[in-house]
Amino acid sequence: MVPLAGFLPRPTCGEGQITRQAQRIAGEVQQQVKLPWSDTFHSIANRLPLFFDRMMAEGEEEHMIIELVAPVAFVAAIAATYFLRPICLKVGLVDHPDAIRKQHAAPTPLGGGLGILAGILTAALLIPEMRQDGFGSFLVALVPLLVAGLWDDLFEARTAVRVIAQIVAGVLMVYAGGVVIRDLGGLVDPVKSVALHGWAAPFTIFCVIGVVNSINMIDGLDGLAGGLVLVALGWFALAASIQGAAVDAAFALAFMGAVAGFLVFNFRHPKRNRASVFLGDTGSMMLGLVLAWLAVRLTKVESGGMPPMAAVWVIGMPLLDTLSIIVRRVAQGRSPLAPDRDHLHYVLLRAGLSVRQTVSILMLVGLLFGAIGIGAWRFGVPDSVLFYGALSVYAVYLAVMHRVWKRMGASEGAGNGKK
Asked: What is the 3-state secondary structure (H, E, C) of the chain?
């Protein structure tokens, strides 16, 4: 198991304690058992504890390395975002307000995603352990999203361009990185897993597209997408620690640090009424890929990993909102990716909550969903319970939102009639 600060305790065994105990035992054995090879045994017994002490020191060193990735990425992301802001304004990488959805006060730099990426690359450069076991494959899968995201942030690319980039990223993730969902666990029958066989690759690519779009679509308020991703990354870091997946734990913690660095400029607080930097499509699609990558890597049913349904609960808040919005748009004969103001966060704003209150509430919901997913996994709750529970939550949510949307439409119609 990989110990993480705040998650699991440090070893309590004092340095050199193993050495002293082993030497004492070796001496007693040599005195009581006088055999021809006892001197050799005594020599080996004196050397073995040094080996164990070295192993303990290496484990402690690994522990310290894992603790360092988040602070390094945090500081680097803050520095990069700070210096990128004027560059974004100069080259036109900004988001301009409009009268419909984009109601921020002034043109805002879209350098948040680039700042997060700079934080991650800095952590990987300074801490070699970050570059192990698939990090290069992740960067390869990220390239099409970076290109499409930058193009969209600069020139407002067509939806088809983003979708094609997401498909390519999913293909690279599956075939270049070997990150694929092969088993869904016991969704219907607790004793019989649902193996995907030949459908594993296309299903994984479909999931990548869904998760990437869920983060992209929920990025509508200051601090919302970053806050929800930060919460989900925390749960994935814990899941990786429980499984002993050191590289995945470091990966999740590094992105937590980088996202937290971005939120310094994006999250509203008493001294900041407006975000000074946005994620942009570059950042939102990158964070969606991060969550998809970790969700699939950590849910290996065949090797005893976290069940896929637990990962669904961890990222359940953005998935819930996105799925309900897509159903509504399709029912109205519109494109499932067409922008509007029907998302839950806009509904809460219309109900009178502030941006800060709305973001805080949705982050708490994300925290609760993640606790349900990880808690159910650790307490041995069957996958079928998580599956049917998720379906029930979605059905209730969709029914409630349908009534809310209907009332919103009626009130808007009455308002237009008065005019």
From this structure: CCCCCCCCCCCCCCCCHHHHHHHHHHHHHHHHCCCCCHHHHHHHHHHHHHHHHHHHHHHHHHHHHHHHHHHHHHHHHHHHHHHHHHHHHHHCCEECCCCCCCCCCCCEECCHHHHHHHHHHHHHHHCHHHHCCCHHHHHHHHHHHHHHHHHHHHHCCCHHHHHHHHHHHHHHHHHCCCCCCCECCCCCECCECCECHHHHHHHHHHHHHHHHHHHHHHCCCCCHHHHHHHHHHHHHHHHHHHHCCHHHHHHHHHHHHHHHHHHHHHCCECCECCCCCCCHHHHHHHHHHHHHHHHHHHCCHHHCCCCHHHHHHHCHHHHHHHHHHHHHHHHCCCCCCCCCCCCHHHHHHHCCCCHHHHHHHHHHHHHHHHHHHHHHHHCCCCHHHHHHHHHHHHHHHHHHHHHHHHHHHHHHHHHHHHC
